[in-house]
Amino acid sequence: MNENEIGTVVVDCSINLHKELGPGLLENVYETLLAYELESRGLKVERQVSIPLNYKGIDFKESFRADLLIEGKVVLEMKSIEHVSNAHKKQLLTYMKLMDCKLGYLLNFGEALMVDGITRTLNGFID
Q: 71 in the Ramachandran plot: left (φ > 0), alpha (ψ -120 to 50) or beta?
């Protein structure tokens, strides 16, 4: 699957999960259940993926952690808060750049409607 096809599945699973459970649960609950839903759709899901950083020749092996990495191509950053900020969006883009991923989603399960909690982010051009 390409990034856009994976993204379609991510959005569908996220909306369905939110419809089922609603807002207000802890972030790690949504992370666990979304990983389960994506895996049940046949996708390879990695949780809490370490993102290394090299700064001036110094390797920092566990600088950051991405909540979910789908098929090694799409980064998901999960939130369960009232509203996301620009800092959250920048966090996702930084992860994407460090991991050399072209597509990422900031998923805020704290919104009343999940559609309002989905932010799609691009890092470069996707075919």
A: left
What are 121's two structure tokens?
A: 């982010």
Q: Is 82 exposed, middle or buried (0-12, 13-18, 19+ CB in 10 A)?
A: exposed
> Rounded CA gap, 86 and 127, in Å?
26
Place of tokens 């909306």: 15
* Identity of the residue numbered 73: K
* 52-67 tens-digit pLDDT: 888 899 988 777 899 9
Q: Tokens in use for 52?
A: 């290394």
Pairing label, strands 118-122, 58-70: unpaired
> Which SS3 state, helix, strand or coil, does residue 18 take?
helix
3-class DSSP state of 59: strand
Distance in angstroms (rounded) separating the CA atoms of residues 12 and 115: 10
